[in-house]
Structures are given as C-alpha cells and as structure tokens.
Amino acid sequence: MIETMNFPSLEAIKAARQRIQPFIHRTPILKSEAINDMAGCEIYFKCENFQKVGAFKARGAANAVAKLTDAQKQNGVATHSSGNHAAALARAASVAGIKSYIVMPSNAPEIKKKAVKGYGGEIIECEPNLMARETTLQAVVKKTGATFIPPYDYMDVIEGQATCALEMWEEGIPFDTIMAPVGGGGLLGGTALTTKYLSPSTKVIAGEPEGADDAYRSFHAKKLIPMEGPKTIADGLLTSLGKINFAIIMDYVDDILTVSDEEIIAAMRLIYERMKIVIEPSCAVPLAALLKQKERFKGQKVGIILSGGNVDLGKLPF
Q1: What CATH number should be reported for the domain holding residue 75?
Q2: What range defines the domain where residue 109 resides?
Q3: Of 67, 133, 138, 179, whose CB has the highest number of CB atoms within 10 Å?
C-alpha cells in the first residue's frame, strides 16, 4: 500500500474529481485500429487535447483555485509560466471571480499571451530566464498578496492532474500499462499515484525527449539532476522535473523511455493522419516511445494520455 502521509490519497484524488467536475471536460478515450496494427497492441488514447484550455493543466489549476480560502481569494493568484499553466490558472481564476497575475517571459508565444488575456489574466512580462521569472513573481506576490500556484511541483496541482487517470480507470479497461509524457512531472506523478492505488500491477511508463532528458537521468541516478539547456520540439516538456514529483516517480513509476525529435514528429504525424485530431509535439512522446520498443508492449492494453493540443498550426513540423 502506498504511504499516503505526504502524497495525495485516493480519497483526496476522488474529492478533487468532484470539486473540479463543473469546471472541466470529462475527455473521451479514442482508439485507432490502424495504429493498433502498427504497434502490435491495443492503445487507448485519453484525449486531454480536448480539455478546457486545450490541455490537462486545466485540472490542476481548477483544483488549486477551488481549495483556496476566502481570505486567499481576496488577493487572487499568481504564477510564472510561458505555456498551458498560464492559461489554465487565468481561466480557473476567472471562473472563481478572482484576479490572476501571470508572469510570462517576453518571448512567450503570442498565441499563449492571447489565451491568458482572453481569460482575464494580467500579464507581467520579464526577461526569458528562470531567475527573472522567479524574482518578478516574488515582486508581484509582495505587491498584491496573491497566492502563488506553481505549475507542477505543488500538491493541489498534482492532486488535480491525478483525476485524469482516475477517469481512465472508471472506464473499466484493465490496462497493463499507462503512459504519459514527463516535463515538470505533475501529470506523470498524479497518474502514477492514481494507477498504483487502483491497480498496483499496472506499469506506469513515461516518455521523454532525448533533448530534455533530466527525468530519465534523475530516475537512473536516483537523484534529482536539473536540466540545463534543453532542446527539443516538444516545447511543453522543457521544464526541469519538480522535487515532489521526483519523489513520487522514484516510488511509483516503472520506467522512463527517451525518444528523438524525429521519432516525436513521426508519432505526431501518425496521430494527425490516422486519428484526425490536433495534438502538440509533447503529446506524441509516449506513442513515439511505445513504437520504438514495440516488443515490450506486444499484446498489451496500453493507456496513453494525450496531454494537450495547443500547437501553432502555422509551424507544424511536417
């Protein structure tokens, strides 16, 4: 049995699912016979690319905001993010009727800035480096009294992301393996917790780009190794693995597999062509890993979380 003293318990994850239900989509699970034939196994794609704000991040942000006290809500929420968490938190705050302050690097994609503004978030720009993001955020929190909601290394966020796998298990599919991409580790950590509570024998395996492989290296070294200078097309996975998530991963994740950008692009194209759905490169990483090591998954029932669909269609890699 999992030690639940520090990590969200199954009861807490179920409570989170109830808490955020009015604010998110219960996303569908899709299959492709053509991809199954190629892979030699049965794949169930959990389509978080259809989620609110176009990514699973809507879950963690909604849960974190819903758990704020009335006193905390008075001053709103703040975070630093150049991507999906920025939009997810701005939306969650808007739904709750509270302010959100989003520190974004000056080079963040215009499409992401537009999304944050569209959800009523106030953008504070900073230099595009982690130190600038953190110091700017500290200044914003000091000035406004807003509560900092980190993008992934935060219990309430992990608890929210864990609801994605909970919905998968509620479908009654006896998964042999569940796969997710790993960047900061919030989705992977939450997925591992839910899965090991409900089906300890099911393997939890992550996919990670070779050009941003800090989770892979940390997992094998059994110590947290921060990523320096990541370079990959999977822009949602450039972040270094969080400390809380590293602890969960070391206890409950079975393996981390790495793939090249070429393999990611091939898997992404396959999903576009065969499933007719829009996904971002980060989403394609677990499928790329499965296709790279087909023998390992032969004949299995495999759940893959498609983490998001926020991609600039003018810059598709194919």
Answers
A1: 3.40.50.1100
A2: 58-148
A3: 179
Mean pLDDT of the chain: 94
Asked if 228 and 297 sit in the same domain, the reply is yes
Residues 98 and 228 in one domain: no
DSSP string, 33-96: HHHHHHHTSEEEEEEGGGSGGGBTHHHHHHHHHHT--HHHHHH-EEEE-SSHHHHHHHHHHHHH
- Catalytic choice (81, 82, 282, 307): 307
* pLDDT tens-digit readout, 39-79: 999 999 999 999 999 999 999 999 999 999 999 999 999 99
Q: Which of 46, 52, 57, 99 is catalytic?
A: 57
pTM of the prediction?
Answer: 0.95
Q: Show which of 127, 148, 169 is a domain's final residue.
A: 148
